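Discrete fold record:
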Amino acid sequence: MAYQVIIPAAGQGKRMGAGRNKVLLELNQLPIFIHTLKVFEMDQDCNGIYLAINPRDESEMKALLHEHHITKVVALAPGGKERQHSIYNALKFVKQKGIILVHDAARPFINKKLLDPLVKAAEENGASILAVPVKDTVKKAAGKIVTETVERTSLWAVQTPQAFRFSILMQAYQKAEQDDFLGTDDASLVERIGHNVVIVEGSYDNIKLTTPEDLYFAEAIIRKQNGNHSP
């Protein structure tokens, strides 16, 4: 089932504290965003990658794309002030309609086993997301005083990719721009226009690398994938 993917990679990564774009940091001797792009490069169902970047990273990213033989990037879109703006900028470059995925550049552990059911669900329903059941107890608070313990059996921690029919995603973004609305993710924009979003169960390994501590978890995931469970 063919699809295209938008990957926003223009963030500053302030919480990573690296002083540069976090997706350029190396994980297992490869830049994080190259790990991510390789998944889509190797998936025969992926017909194109749209990368939203910070202009100051353009020359370095182009060199890395060439070095690591990433050939499916069909457009480099300018990053915006917020992630949502970056994705909208990239969405405007898409010419071939169909299923569009949106995936975080700093989420390198996505895999084909998750992509296939996600794309299928989007084709059948128009919108789908990866998510995993919340494992922790969740509490609401006023300041630091607990006001409620939230019943968690209906709670899901949302991941990317998120997948949509092009027409639905474009309509959602146009409406958000019209209303000057900033959502928490792409699915929240689609929900605003009254479209149902279907959950496809993801993987707890599909983490987003946001803080320095996340890099330790990432290294552990790589060891597990390589069959080496030693600390």
About this structure: The chain has one domain: 3-225. Residues 175 and 181 are 8 Å apart (CA to CA). The first strand starts at residue 3 and ends at 9. The radius of gyration is 18 Å.
